[in-house]
Structures are given as C-alpha cells and as structure tokens.
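Table 4 source record.
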Amino acid sequence: GMGRFAQGFFACESPVQQREMFSVSADDCFKIHMDWAHWYRVDPKLVMAFLRRSGETVRWLEQKGMRFTLKKCWPNQNAVWHIPEGGGNAYLKVVREICDSHGVQFIYRCSAKKLLQDEAGAVCGAEAEDENGQVFSVRARQVILATGGFGGSTELLEELCPSYDPEIPIEDTNRFNTGDGIRMARAVGAATAKSVPILYGGHWIDSGMTPRSMVMLPVTTDPATVWLDCDGRRFCDESAFYADFAANGLRHKYTFALFDESIRERLEVDGPTLGGEAPGHKKDVKGNPGLGAAF
C-alpha cells in the first residue's frame, strides 16, 4: 500500500528525541495543536492519547530493530519528524514480521464494499470483492476503516467542503482516495461532519508533477524567498508551514516565490534550508543538482 512511500511520522517524548537532547513534551504539542484548531470539533482526550502514545510507539519499534533519524519539517518547528532507516518499506517489514508471528492473515488485491452488522446494529465485519469479482465476508470483533480521505471524489468534496475550489490543487496523493470507507460508514448510520477543512497543495509548481517541477519545488518552499500574491503583496510569513501557506494563499489561487540567483545557487549546492530533499532525491548526492538547468 501507500505505507511503502511514507517518509516518516510524528512523535513526541520519544527516545530518539531524548538521545538528541530535544525536549518536546506532549503537553506543549497538545497546546500547539488545540490552539491551531481553535478547540473546534476536536476531541482533547483523543488528541492527548495520540500524543502520549507516539513516543511509546517509537520506543516499541526501536525494540523491534528499527532506527530513526530526527528532523524538522519546517525551520520554526520542533524536531518531531521521525524518519525510519529504509523508509516505509522498513516499517512495513517489521510490522509484517510481527503480524506473521501472531498468525495474522493478509488478503491482497481486493476492495471492501460494505460493513456488516449484527442483529443489534453493531458492526461485525465487512464484505469485500477480489480481483476476479468474487464476493466474500470477513467477520471480526473490531473493524478499522483506513481508506484515507476523499480528495479523489468531486461529489464528496462538493458536499462536505464549503471551501472546495476545483481550480486550486489539493495534495496530490488525495486523488487516489475516493472516500470508500466514509461511504461504507455512512451506509450503516455513521455521522459525518457538516463542514470538512481541506489541505490544499500548498507550495506547488503550476506545471504540475513533472521531473522538472520536482527539481524546482524546494525553491518555492525556501524561507529565504519572498511569497507574493497576484497583487504583488506578501501574504504569509515565509517560514510558515504548509497549512499556514495554504490558508493564506488559497484565496489568491496563484502565488509567487521571489528569489535571486544567489538563493538559487545556494539551494543547488547545499540543498533546501528545510532539511529535506526533492522527491526522488538520492541520499548520496549533495544539494539539488539540476536546479539551474530546470530554470
């Protein structure tokens, strides 16, 4: 699945942070998250449970043999991004081995079609269809819907997202998520929010996802650039995160990153200020070669 492409995940109070002498407490992260959400339609107990268990999850994975590199996603952010050595494949390998040792069965090349309910109305399994069109049922005490969002469904976007604008790109991976799990849950009576926020594409290149635009992308996110709207006005702090960029920039539909040759040269030689690399970047290659040719 898409887990193979995962770059890393969030965690606080982890052993990796402790070894690197970073103090990132669950309480501090809780306040940041709740303030950002304005305490609106957010379950505080659920948020805190997630934060408390995140560091324990890293410790558990390290006990299983995984190793992590700690990075910041953004210059003004705490070091909370835990990148596993070997990427998402390494994580899936460890989890697969654990599941195999407990006799967990995996069924591939099939899609869930609907949830099953018992006489009392409780969900007790799912009905699925394999690649040959054969329908079968799986019974279970617990059912987890992990189908992702619905960025690939124009119907659900128009229904649930008042801010949806088809002219503004949404995060690219969302096109594969058609809301199957949400549809199945609604079919058995699950409640859905009346208004769902969208994570728009943030910094992106107008030409779309091409090899050339991938090389150019780090320039648009660099905090040394100047971000302007269509009227030539700055609209956001250039060290802001994706969500802040999108929230301020989406009302303009198009924005611009202003930079000079010295910034371009620095990015090509030293790599992005953010500490990450362009998609497909080779770890043994320093900087961002080919950036000058792309422009």
